[in-house]
Amino acid sequence: MADRVKVLVVDDSLTMRGLISAALKSDPEIEVVGTAADPLEARTAIKELNPDVLTLDVEMPNMNGLEFLDKIMRLRPMPVVMVSTLTAAGTDVTLAALEIGAVDAVAKPAVASAEAFHELIGKVKTAARSRVRARGDVPAAAAAPSAYRPAPNHVLAIGSSTGGVEALLTVLSGFPANCPATVITQHMPATFTSSFAARLDRVCAPAVSEAVDGAPLKPGHIYLAPGGAAHLELTPGLSPRCRLVNSEPVNGHRPSVDVMFDSVVRLKRPMTGVILTGMGKDGAKGLKAIRDAGGRTLGQDETTSVVYGMPKAAFELGAVERQLPLHRLAPAILDLCADPAARSVA
């Protein structure tokens, strides 16, 4: 990018502010324009410095990071990357922040050093290119249908990355309890996927769980790939099961959307693939393989994507049949996966 990304670092720890700033300053495309110890200082600094991106601690005095983020997203929407502790409480708050509109999150390392925040550099650059909208500007998602019957043996696979927490919550909240058997790969740190699956299970009608090796694929169940350690695949046969494969990252990711999509194709069953918001191109080739094999495919449109990277790559490859805004995806997905005798017009 022509201009450096201006970043404001907000953290109540002087040490953390220094480490985060040092990590970001190591990249010539980033400029740390200021730091703040709490939301009150941050509010003043935002007005004076007009940063492109905010890094925000979860737990701070005077006002916690979640409350401050909510105010930002309502009054002055801007890209925010959360910096979270690895505790269960910190993870839950970070997921709530991603729902509110934070672009991404990183975990504070067990051993504090500038090198440990290297991952934050890429996330800040991605955040600077993201599309952030005020809370209330996003259309409400469609309610789950009162009567629905999935097609026998139909498999639904969904891939997402940056912005995917909010997108998946929107889509899955429109699913009925008897949704098609669904597998999801969301690029997310390993510490977050278990809590995210539990969160989805609480707010969505279907049963949602983090995928475990050997779990049988069943309608009414949604399986989320665990973060970091393995790829999620499906084993072919009369009774497909989840398989966690500890192989090398693909497209820089483990789990990879492409790996999951490719395994769905090998099932040789009726299938639908969906690509949601995210940076990069993971999932584009796999979605094309689904379409080439006779499956149906959908992509999130540019306007509603936080980062129009993965959907764009898939669309340009010819992998996407239709692009739709986020709030229209759930009805369209369900229509493609419905029993033909009960199918409605999406």
UniProtKB/TrEMBL annotation:
Enzyme Commission numbers on file: 3.1.1.61, 3.5.1.44
GO CC annotation: cytoplasm
Keyword field: Chemotaxis, Cytoplasm, Hydrolase, Phosphoprotein
Location in the cell: Cytoplasm
Positions annotated as active site in the UniProt record: S161, H187, D282
Reactions performed catalytically: [protein]-L-glutamate 5-O-methyl ester + H2O = L-glutamyl-[protein] + methanol + H(+); L-glutaminyl-[protein] + H2O = L-glutamyl-[protein] + NH4(+)
PTM comment, free text: Phosphorylated by CheA. Phosphorylation of the N-terminal regulatory domain activates the methylesterase activity.
PROSITE patterns associated with the record: CHEB, RESPONSE_REGULATORY
GO molecular function terms listed in the Swiss-Prot or TrEMBL record: phosphorelay response regulator activity; protein-glutamate methylesterase activity; protein-glutamine glutaminase activity
Span of domain Response regulatory: 6-123
Free-text note regarding domains: Contains a C-terminal catalytic domain, and an N-terminal region which modulates catalytic activity.
PANTHER family referenced in this protein's UniProt entry, alphabetically: PROTEIN-GLUTAMATE METHYLESTERASE/PROTEIN-GLUTAMINE GLUTAMINASE, PROTEIN-GLUTAMATE METHYLESTERASE_PROTEIN-GLUTAMINE GLUTAMINASE
Record's function text: Involved in chemotaxis. Part of a chemotaxis signal transduction system that modulates chemotaxis in response to various stimuli. Catalyzes the demethylation of specific methylglutamate residues introduced into the chemoreceptors (methyl-accepting chemotaxis proteins or MCP) by CheR. Also mediates the irreversible deamidation of specific glutamine residues to glutamic acid.
Family named by the database record: Belongs to the CheB family.
Protein name as annotated: Protein-glutamate methylesterase/protein-glutamine glutaminase
Annotated organism of origin: Brevundimonas aurantiaca
Lineage, highest ranks first: Bacteria, Pseudomonadati, Pseudomonadota, Alphaproteobacteria, Caulobacterales
